[in-house]
Specification:
Elements: H1 14-24, H2 34-39, E1 68-74, H3 81-94, E2 97-103, H4 106-115, E3 122-124, H5 133-138, H6 146-149, E4 174-175, E5 178-179, E6 182-194, H7 195-201, H8 209-221, E7 225-228, H9 235-258, H10 269-283, H11 296-304, E8 308-314, H12 317-320, E9 331-334, E10 349-358, H13 366-376, H14 379-389, H15 407-419, E11 423-424, H16 428-431, H17 433-447, H18 453-468
Parallel strand pairs: 1-2, 1-3, 7-8, 10-11
Antiparallel strand pairs: 3-10, 4-5, 6-8, 6-9, 6-10
């Protein structure tokens, strides 16, 4: 999540890309539907794997028995045992065997394969070394997933797959109005603390920013850091900064950033107050010592050792830290505390979907890749995921009630229920990765006290203004 991926000099010129994309049917040719273009499998590619078998109600894409599926999964906080369980079931039910790769080196392993026109069939494109979705989309490398989403749902064939998904969770996988990534995991982002430490110290969950600062100050007096963050990946501290902005200024303040408003940062009172609040932690020396130089797992592990009261993260934290978390730590999630006169309530949280799964346009076995994704959105596979990965999926009521979630994850479920409709989600991180990286770089400087909030606002606004000059950005808009 904090790394920048450069795509210059990868040996594919723009003209070649257009030619190649046109041959593949990735660029609309008048009179040709995207569907017929996909079904042809690229025409000159006489690969058995792309040939379609007979379609039926239970096999809408015509998956052929005896085929192979190339699956690559980011092996991070959720591990990859869930994918192995899916693959075993897929083989049992459809007779398709899988080659499975679980890795954290998504860019390193996959960029050469995309460049060579030989990508896997389905990929969980996540983690610090993710290949950015907007970049893959611009290169014509992603399949439009509407065919999967409009197929009959496994659990209720009278409904489409998309009808059984939690509202709003498909937004994060959209580029220019098309769904090109399926963000599969229902995620919330916010602050985390140890129930045990809080009980021992007599601290209560702070609902206001002033109370949050008071706890951090008390922690500091006792030799404990106030706030830890994953310094080497400023993605995480941006969760805190951006949440403060959205909660202070409401959904309009958030949409101003996503919609590249000329006053998204400079001239926005909410943005100014939000960043000043986080900077207060820096200025008053309330950061966990050394946190700016640590990776995500190093910082999180020190927090597990009671070296900080709070840390910012998404709901994968508990899984990622299983081995480092003491048995009686009592991991708890909470929303970001409120600044005075905030437009959103304390219970409001950033929530939505994470962990993008993609089907490359040049996948060798497209029918099997589409069917695999369709089955991911079945109760059976959603429950398998919850059991193995201790997390919820974007499928409505998709997890069997018998599945026991761990305490930290259960606290995110409780927080989601308490938030109700008061959830929000930025999309600039998905739409404009270059702008996202520039904002992260500014936050990195801010947390290291090399720049002040005023300069942070200036740098972030410059990133917005630069992005707004790209004519393609007109195709993304939030109402």
């Amino acid at each position: 999540m904090g790394s920048t991926v450069h795509h210059d000099g990868d040996g594919v010129g723009r003209r070649d890309l257009i030619k190649r994309s046109a041959a593949l049917g990735l660029i609309a040719v008048p009179g040709l539907t995207a569907l017929s273009a996909c079904a042809s499998g690229g025409g000159d590619d006489s690969n058995d794997n792309t040939s379609k078998g007979k379609t039926s109600k239970t096999n809408p894409f015509g998956v052929e028995k005896g085929g192979k599926l190339d699956v690559v999964v980011f092996k991070g906080g959720y591990g990859d045992d869930y994918a192995k369980a899916w693959e075993a079931d897929f083989n049992k039910k459809l007779g398709v065997t899988s080659t499975h790769t679980g890795t954290q080196e998504i860019t390193g392993k996959l960029q050469p394969r995309f460049n060579a026109g030989n990508p896997p069939d389905i990929v969980d494109d996540s983690g610090a070394q993710q290949i950015k979705i907007d970049v893959l989309y611009k290169n014509g490398s992603l399949l439009d997933l509407s065919e999967v989403l409009d197929a009959p749902a496994v659990d209720d064939p009278s409904k489409k797959v998309r009808d059984l998904i939690i509202p709003g969770t498909l937004d994060a996988g959209m580029q220019e109005g098309k769904t090109v990534a399926l963000n599969y995991i229902y995620t919330v982002w916010g602050l985390w603390y140890s129930g045990k430490l809080f009980k021992e110290k007599g601290w209560e969950e702070p609902k206001t920013w002033a109370d949050f600062i008071t706890i951090c100050q008390d922690a500091k007096k006792q030799g404990i850091g106030g706030l830890a963050h994953q310094g080497k990946y400023p993605y995480y501290i941006n969760v805190a900064i951006m949440d403060m902005i959205a909660k202070k200024g409401g959904l309009d303040a958030m949409k101003a950033i996503d919609n590249l408003d000329p006053k998204a940062f400079v001239g926005s009172a909410a943005a100014q107050e939000g960043v000043e609040a986080i900077y207060e932690v820096v200025e008053k020396g309330l950061l966990m010592p050394g946190t700016n130089g640590l990776t995500h797992t190093e910082s999180q592990t020190r927090w597990n050792q009671y070296k900080a009261a709070f840390i910012t993260c998404g709901s994968w934290l508990e899984n990622e830290q299983l081995k480092q978390t003491p048995d009686d730590f009592d991991m708890k999630f909470m929303p970001m505390p409120l600044l005075p006169d905030s437009k959103l309530p304390f219970e409001a949280i950033r929530a939505g979907s994470g962990e993008p799964f993609i089907i490359p346009a040049k996948a060798k076995n497209l029918p099997a890749a589409k069917e695999f994704m369709r089955r991911m959105l079945s109760k059976e596979w959603s429950t398998l995921f919850a059991k193995e990965a201790n997390s919820l999926t974007i499928l409505k009521d998709g997890v069997d009630p018998s599945v026991q979630l761990r305490p930290g994850t259960q606290s995110t479920v409780d927080a989601s229920k308490a938030a109700g409709d008061n959830t929000f989600r930025y999309l600039y991180t998905e739409w404009y990765s270059e702008m996202g990286t520039a904002i992260e770089a500014a936050s990195n400087e801010l947390m290291a006290k090399r720049i002040q909030p005023k300069e942070w606002l200036k740098r972030c606004q410059a990133a917005v203004d630069k992005q707004a000059k790209d004519p393609a950005s007109k195709k993304n808009h939030r109402d």
